[in-house]
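Risk mitigation, structural track. In case the binding assays with zinc ion fail to produce interpretable data, a predicted complex structure has been prepared as a fallback.
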Amino acid sequence: MSERDLYEVLGVSRGSDESEIKKAYRDLAKKYHPDKNRGDVSAEQKFKEASAAYEVLGDKEKRKAYDRFGMSGVDPQRGRGGGGPFGGRGDPFGGSAFSDVFEEFFGHAAGGGGRRSSGGGNLRYDVELTLEEAFSGVSRHIVFARTESCESCSGTGGEGGSKNVTECRKCGGAGVMRFQQGFFAIEQTCDHCRGQGRVIEKKCGRCGGQGVERKERQLDVTIPAGVDTDNKLRVPNEGNLVSGGSRGDLYIVTKVSPHEVYKRDGLHLGIRMPIGMIDAILGTSVEIPILDGSRARVNIKEGVQNGQRLRISGKGMPELRSKKRGDLLIDVYVETPVKLTSKQKEILEQFREEGRLAENAPESAKFFSRLKGFFKGG
Ligand SMILES: [Zn+2]
Ligand SMILES: [Zn+2]
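Fallback model:
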């Protein structure tokens, strides 16, 4: 299916109201309808695109999810094949899981069911980590709400259990209706049972017929060493229970906070290290704390230049699920001394009078001689 913006597909603006969207869809559907465009592949494609766009934008909840998260907000199953409005069984965009969980975590707490249950049961949980935690890996105790089978109706959605649930007469329990429309075999979600294949005669009072209710879930999750911002860790079968009995997955999404000293660049850790001018001239040795708690001794050779990068290999971040580690990159910054006493100045004046400046500073000597030549030549 196309990755085009759904509003663009329908030719409407983001601010369009429901009736404008409906009208745009109707116009397109009429124009590109397979009956009128027999054998025209591009018309067929446009018809499908418009239908898929309307599946989302024509539904208040899905549209809201799409506005916030794009297709990932309405279709977590994307990429598994099937899909598309005429492809698989039931509602192809049934899984507005991410929007669900965002509201759950950042909005209302679980309120005894009543929320519309959706196809996909995947949940998202955001975890913020320090760089040290990302370095060593960490265990987190998380508390979240997810749907479980409703206790009152045993998950059937009918008051008192299965006695109030019957097979859908219209689709014979299949959940879909198949019919021939011109050249195409069309498969549509059964409108009587909304793809469920069964009809609830009397809805369960506790869950409103959803068969599921929200409950608190506590879990210890291990976040492996080496995670970076926006890594998604899948915890299988810890998501929502959805109508039909399958359970989605929980996705832990990591965010690593910036560090005061270290700047992360993939596997490497960078540090900007100021050193005094005399240390730069004569050389020195410094100790640098490593994120694992150890220290690395760094020898700075005499004559180190401003901006020079030193590399300690294997002291950077660990790679996720590997023994490999990045490097520690030290960018030397030579600090020019300030607030000198008159005695210090005197010593440095003596240093200057020593001469040998061309040997001490070959680069600037070369630069100034080139400038001289430039002025003569001009
Ligand atoms: Zn119930
Ligand atoms: Zn049906």
